[in-house]
Specification:
By secondary structure, the chain is α/β, with parallel strands linked by helices. About 35% of the residues lie in helices and about 25% in strands. It has 6 helices and 9 strands; from the N terminus they run E-H-E-H-E-H-E-H-E-H-E-E-H-E-E. Helix 1 links the parallel strand 1 and strand 2. Bound molecules: 5-O-phosphono-beta-D-ribofuranosylamine (GRF).
């Protein structure tokens, strides 16, 4: 499945996806990586893996719609069949989502619907929850609100800071995201409205 990834930052989830492909665990082909930020770790990691990259700097466009139109054209040119958001820090507009005919996935560092949006780990620490985690979900027109494919819990420890919790969650993210994508491309993700059922994991 020809896959594009959008990432804005360090790119550790992107790296996990690249490595899962390289080790033969994930049957997708990452054909293009895009970013709204130049010079990011995500772009560097992609170039090192020999993947085509493209920057869509928001300041180069008169408005957000023009930037998204360029992303749509770029996906069409690369015959993309799956879009993965991996730390892409811009919310895609409802118009964009409506124009994409293939699945768009995102990973979020909390157990949604708790703590959507920015600084999910800080929100969890400040709220005082005892358990947080991460969620891989289909992207819909809302903010971190699409149907949930996989979630995994991570304990929040009394001494946790935003950074320590983020690090513990990140280790799980790197396993959960490739696994969710694998299930999807193997046709094991079935949607019933906003509920997702995972068909038998092996075989
Ligand atoms: C991750 O915590 C992810 O859940 C969130 O943004 C962060 C991206 O980190 N959406 P990285 O760029 O993949 O290292």
């Amino acid at each position: 499945m020809r896959t594009a990834i959008l990432a804005s930052g360090r790119g550790s989830n992107l790296q996990a996806l690249i490595e899962a492909c390289q080790s033969g665990c994930l049957p997708i082909k990452i054909v293009a990586v895009g970013s709204d930020q130049p010079g990011t770790g995500a772009l560097k990691r992609s170039e090192e893996a020999g993947i085509l990259t493209r920057v869509f700097p928001i300041k180069n466009y008169p408005h957000r719609q023009a930037q998204e139109e360029d992303i749509l054209i770029w996906m069409r040119e690369n015959r993309v069949e799956l879009l993965l958001l991996a730390g892409y820090m811009r919310v895609l507009s409802p118009q964009f989502i409506r124009q994409v005919s293939f699945p768009v996935l995102n990973i979020h560092p909390s157990l949604l619907p708790a703590f959507p949006g920015l600084h999910a780990q800080l929100q969890a620490v400040e709220y005082g929850v005892k358990v947080s985690g991460c969620t891989v979900h289909l992207v819909d027109e809302g903010l971190d609100s699409g149907p949930i494919i996989l979630q995994e819990a991570v304990p929040v420890l009394p001494e946790d800071t935003e950074e320590s919790l983020a690090q513990r969650i990140l280790e799980v993210e790197h396993r959960l995201y490739p696994e969710a994508v694998r299930l999807l491309v193997l046709g094991k993700v079935q949607r019933f409205g906003r509920r997702v059922q995972i068909l038998q994991q092996e075989g």
